[in-house]
Amino acid sequence: MKVRLGNLNARGQQKGVDAQIRSDLEALARHHAVTDTILLAGDEDMVPAVEAAQAYGVRIHLWGVEPPYGTNQAERLVWESDTVEVLSAEFLRPFFSRAPQPVTVVPPVTAPSPAQVFAGRTAVPKPHVKPGQVAKLGPSRPRVEDVGEHVAQKWILTRGRDNIRDLLPGPILPTVIDTELLIEAEKELGHSLRPYPEARVWLRDGFWARVYREFDLGVGVSSK
Questions:
Q1: What tens digit of pLDDT does each residue of 104-121 get?
Q2: Is the preceding omega at residue 171 within 30 degrees of 0, hence cis?
Q3: Among candidates 203, 206, 211, which has minimal Cα distance to 185?
Q4: What structural domains does the chain harbor?
Q5: What phi-psi label fits residue 177: left (phi over 0), alpha (psi between -120 and 50 degrees) or beta?
Q6: pLDDT tens, 42-55?
């Protein structure tokens, strides 16, 4: 095991580690010292080293950490790697803790009275929820399906029809592609879909609806 520490700049940021990792990866592959490499990274700068190692027959297994939403790994790096594994936040949480934040002492101020706080405000009526009915949270189905179609259209244009055709006949997506679809959708929506399993179904419905239209396939999608 070799630890690469790099250097700290004036702002306390660690620099130079990526370059050393790329150099190590290429050297190990060139000398046939490894057959498989686990790469815990997300920067697109690592792609050339991944491609160089693969040229020597080394399999690259990309690991990442589950983000709150969206993605923290470059799309091209994900696509170039041989396998992709995401470490869940639940798995990692016991091993990390937040550093205590400095407490700023604010001089006391005179608290306003309730009459001052609520003066001029109008009451906002709460949404009516019938007994036994749970207020539905999260994005609406039409919105999520629209995002699924938009991601499909984007992939057709950027990745090519041949690559998308390889996903047919569907409607099951490989795990890596399904994760990418979720990440792309979360980026467009601006929040996580992971607490809403039904939204992920709607997302896939919208994705396949667009793909089927592209290839003139009269295949229905799930309505679950």
A1: 776 776 666 666 666 666
A2: yes
A3: 203
A4: 13-92 (3.40.50.1100), 141-214 (no CATH)
A5: alpha
A6: 888 888 889 989 99
